[in-house]
Amino acid sequence: MKSLSQQYRIGAIAKFAGVPVTTLRVWEARHQAFRPIKTAGQHRLYGEEDLLRATLLKQLSDQGYAISTIASLDIAALNDLMHKQSGQSSGLAKLASNRNVSLAIVGLALAGQVESKAFSAHLQNIHLVTTGVYQSLEMVRQTPPNTAPDIFLLKINTLHEIVVHEILQAARAMRASKIVVLYNYGREQVVRSMRDYRMMVRREPLSDYELAELINSVLVVDASQELSETTTSVTIPARKYSDYVLKKISGISTNVLCECPRHVAEIIAQLASFEQYSQECLNKSAEDAHLHAYLSSVSGSARALFEQALEKVASHEGIDLNAQE
Predict the structure, then answer these.
(1) Which residues is 248 bridged to in the sheet?
(2) pLDDT of 217-236, one tens digit each?
(3) Are the beta carbons of 321 and 310 closer than 8 angstroms?
(4) Higher pLDDT among residues 186 and 255, named by residue
(5) Which of 34, 61, 220, 288 has a CA that sits 20 to 30 A from residue 322's CA?
(6) Is 302 helix (H, G, I), strand (E, B) or coil?
(7) What mean pLDDT is predicted for residues 29-54?
(8) Which residues pair with 7 in a beta bridge?
(9) Which residue ranges does the record assign to the HTH merR-type domain (predicted)?
């Protein structure tokens, strides 16, 4: 039996998937692509799985698949076809833009939004590759994607301490680089703890533009150019060294006359602070979202580069960074 929590009229499905209503009705009547429920007033209502199916069917049909051959496939099979198609074209995409970003998604409606034509319009310079779509965190732990995703994107209705633990477990199972969580309800204390774990957390609802800016904010960009320009990008590595470790490094006496370990450690701490500040600004309000996403990605990129510099300086000076934990 389908859940009544998330249901849509056919017009909403058409808008999300970028498929005319008449085409969806043909897919349903002729190929049994969807199985809507009927209300007492005989109105058809479609669920989250129907939304994702419509989006995947549209993308696959655009790539040359006959709807008659794919309409009966389940979500997992449709995703497999998408992954194969993405794998065949990833080489060309990488040469063209060098901006491939992989996603694992929890939430069928969220996956439908991300894979829709309307959302893609806000990510013109980024090629998104979905490595897995899951209905729950438990499914992620049971069958993690074969390839570690750059971004683990989740829709969670209610946040609490147990869910945070489950998110971290799932992220470790799939070896995700970054975690982005969208939620409806949650105590501020829980949200703060999630940000301490370097998760990007935003309260729903989010427009396509706002969600696109969240994804932009966890990408390394060339600081000399705007996000809208053609730049190379990969996910920003998570922070390596805590403020406590950086403070200990700053106090170590070395043979370097310019006190490089101390200066580099202080720069990292300042960049990490500003990175967190920019993310919080982005989390709190949609106003100036593009600017805060840009500032967050630039400061995160710089912080990651200086962490590499710190490791080189430490190696030169014989400092064991692991011993400072």
Answers:
(1) none
(2) 776 544 334 333 333 445 67
(3) yes
(4) 186
(5) 220
(6) helix
(7) 85
(8) 47
(9) 7-76
